[in-house]
Structure formats: C-alpha cells, structure tokens
Amino acid sequence: MPAYINVILYMVLTAISFTFIDKLGNVVNPLISLFFMSIYATIWFNAVNYKHLKQIYLKCCSQNRLLYIIVAINVGINWLCSIFAPHKSDPFIYLSVTFVTMAICGLVATQKETKTQFFIEWGCIMLLASSVVLLRYGYEIHYNKNTDTGLILGCISGVTTYYYAVFSNKYSKENNFSSSQMLALRFWPLIIGLGCFILFRHITFTFTWHITFILLIISFLALIIPVYFLQKAIITIKTNSLSVILAITPVITFFIYSISIKKLNLTNLVVCLVITTTLCISRIIPIILSHRRKHLGVKG
What we know:
Elements: H1 2-24, H2 30-48, H3 53-62, H4 65-88, H5 91-109, H6 115-138, H7 147-175, H8 179-185, H9 188-200, H10 209-236, H11 239-246, H12 249-261, H13 266-299
Helix pairs in contact: 1-4, 1-10, 1-12, 2-4, 2-8, 2-9, 2-10, 4-5, 4-7, 5-6, 5-7, 5-12, 5-13, 6-13, 11-13, 12-13
C-alpha cells in the first residue's frame, strides 16, 4: 500500500504544481520562473549529492558528452513547454496530450513480434490519436486561452519526455549515476541558456521575497518532491502497473484545476473521462497481449 501512496502523491503534486504554474504566469514572466525554479532544483540535488559532486562532474565533463547534451536538450525543451503551456492554454489539455504522445511514442517504438500485436498496438495508436481530436473539438476552454497552443506544446513535451527517459536511462547506466545524481546535472544547460537569453533580451523582473518564496514552493512541488515520490514508486511497483496508474494523472489535474477556477464543466468532464479511459486501455491491452504471448511461449 505505501508504494501506491507514493504514486498517488506524485500525481496529485504534479496536478497541483501545473495548476499553480498556470496562476504564476499572471505574476512572473514564465522564463524568469523557469530560470529560478531550475536553479533551486539544481542547488537542492547538488546538496543531496555533495559527497560525490567531484566524481559526478568529472564524469559529466569527460564521458558521453554528446549523450549528456541530448539529455539536456530534451529536458530543456520539455520544461519550456511545461512553463508556458498551462498559462497559454490549460493544464489538463497540456498534460493529456503529453501523456497521449508519450503513449504513442512507446507503442510505435515497441517491436511488433506478431501480426496480432501489430494490429492491436496500431489500433491503440489510432484510438489515442482520436482522443486528441475529441479534445481539440470537444473541450471548452476559457476565451483568453488557446487550445491549439496546448496541443502543440503537449505533443512536443510528450516526445521530449519520452526521449529524455530513453537517453537519460542510457546515460545514467553508462556513468553509473543514481536518479538524484542525474537530477543534479540535467538543468545546467537550461539555466545557462535561459540566463543568457534573459540578459541579452533585457527581460526585467521585480525581485521580492514574496515572489521568491512562491517560486521556491513551486520548485519543490514541480521539480523536487514529485520526482522523489515517482522514484520511490518506480522501485516498488512493477513498470506495467505503474504506467496504468500514471494514466489517471490528467483526470486528477482536471479536477484540481476545476476546483481552482471554481467551475466544473460537464462537457469537459466527459472529454476528460474519455481520454483517461483511452489512455488506460492503450496501456492495459498491450500488457495483456504481452502476458498472453509469454504464457503461450511457456506452454509451447
């Protein structure tokens, strides 16, 4: 049971953080927000790994530098999408499309061993794509928000999240890095790039303790605490089970966002439930198919 509490906390905190990011965009330039949030998260994970910092940075500077750059580019693009999408669009739209795109990437990348697997998995892909069409034309969004912006940024985020997972896993294995050690490294190119952009574009901001405190809280909610709970869940829950549970993250986001704006749109609720069901089905069917193949293989 504690393992499932970890994944539930991850989903709830993720939903809350993206809802607050939506509100934060009204107060602070999103680039400024991401710049300081990345700094806070990097300081935290470097502090956690203070005993091994020399070894971590020596490996980073001397081994697999191209792979590190690929990892950093993916995480940088992903978080740029994450900081703009909730403000320009809607947290639910963004997270739904992100999860749908990740699921499609995973299904496309899976090796198809039989014709049955091929047709079932491509059927799931078509189902997922149809859910995005439903979201585009069925979801009602606030007049000053833009659905297409959320769809585009969600697609980009889904692709970069998928490839970040692939390449960061490879990079951490090749360098024998733990999850927290990877987290200590991954934001540096983003911090440097954003810092230069903010400086050269002369983007100004009012530095107050109130805003600093808010950014610190959101950093923990978005970049630090959820990662901790997710990592705990990864260790204790089977990957297949975890992927199914994580598929309900968008629906949790929908309800928390609805609470924050004090409005529950029934049409949007139906769209939300359809997308969540589609995400779950797209994960459950391939799992059942995989178990069936293994069972037949054992019998044969």
